[in-house]
Amino acid sequence: MESEAFDAVDLGLLHALQVDGRAPFSRIARVLSVSDRTVARRFARLAATGAVRVTGVTDSGRIGGAEWVVRLRVRPHRADELAHALAARPDTAWVTVLSSGAEIVCVFRTAAAESAPLSALARHSDILGVDAQRMVRHLTRRRWSGRTSALDDDQVAALRPAQPVASAPVALGDLDRRMLPRLAADGRIGYPNLAGALGWSESAVRRRLDELRRARVLGFDVEVDAALLGYSFQCVLWLTVAPHHLATVGAALIESPEIAFAGAITGPHNIIAVAVCRDADAVFDYVVDRVGALPGVTRLDTAAVTRYAKRAAPALIPR
């Protein structure tokens, strides 16, 4: 699919789904001033080509879990195979191969009292080194602007779902443990199909999904290849920041339109971020002129992303 295939309706649809991944097509159609059929047809086309995917994303912290950022130094000729295997694991949430081909970065989700499976990884003959750091806090609370710039404030307000409510961490039940993986694979699966697959009533499934959303356990994200939107260069940034500057640097990063994700982690690099830019020149300008100039940044390492094997949802493993 070529980037020019994304017209104003497509971009509006992407933005709408990022506001509410389960918004009915009829509501999106009203906001975009097009027909229901047009919205449904556009989404079906984008989904069929693999250009767009709506995924259900679970907040580990809200269910008493933890996230670990794991850097694997690997044999370059085995990187793709290893990334594929990591993406197939149910405990990984993000897997990417970096430009050297000798490094894979992934995020493991575990119970709070557990760590990433370092021993098993270190024993693998093609993994030459392992480093794991705990994700302390997600800094990014907004969506990457490259896919959320098509709608105005009134349109966003018309789409925004009910606001979440503060609550204690949520204990998951059997229905949740069966439902969440299916929503991760297809965030827009219809209630009748979801209920049928789970063996629960549609009303129970609908009610529990709404409860999980309002408790901030479940959110929805839109996976889209940034290159199709004209952004051809993505890279991971590892920052070492003086502790008393962490809040300031974090705030500056999350306000940058280039940043798709930023998080505070343990270890010598205490911030990880993902930057999405139009080309290599734009990355250079952003890193040198803006990030490198932030007070408190004492070290900045970058690595271009070669490919994503997994973002947040289960990988689409070829059969």
UniProtKB/TrEMBL annotation:
<dbReference type="InterPro" id="IPR019887">
    <property type="entry name" value="Tscrpt_reg_AsnC/Lrp_C"/>
</dbReference>
<dbReference type="InterPro" id="IPR019888">
    <property type="entry name" value="Tscrpt_reg_AsnC-like"/>
</dbReference>
<keyword id="KW-0805">Transcription regulation</keyword>
<keyword id="KW-0804">Transcription</keyword>
<dbReference type="InterPro" id="IPR011008">
    <property type="entry name" value="Dimeric_a/b-barrel"/>
</dbReference>
<dbReference type="InterPro" id="IPR036390">
    <property type="entry name" value="WH_DNA-bd_sf"/>
</dbReference>
<keyword id="KW-0238">DNA-binding</keyword>
<dbReference type="Pfam" id="PF01037">
    <property type="entry name" value="AsnC_trans_reg"/>
</dbReference>
<dbReference type="Pfam" id="PF13404">
    <property type="entry name" value="HTH_AsnC-type"/>
</dbReference>
<feature type="domain" description="HTH asnC-type">
    <location>
        <begin position="174"/>
        <end position="213"/>
    </location>
</feature>
<feature type="domain" description="Transcription regulator AsnC/Lrp ligand binding">
    <location>
        <begin position="238"/>
        <end position="306"/>
    </location>
</feature>
<dbReference type="InterPro" id="IPR036388">
    <property type="entry name" value="WH-like_DNA-bd_sf"/>
</dbReference>
<feature type="domain" description="HTH asnC-type">
    <location>
        <begin position="7"/>
        <end position="46"/>
    </location>
</feature>
<dbReference type="InterPro" id="IPR000485">
    <property type="entry name" value="AsnC-type_HTH_dom"/>
</dbReference>
<protein>
    <submittedName>
        <fullName>Lrp/AsnC family transcriptional regulator</fullName>
    </submittedName>
</protein>
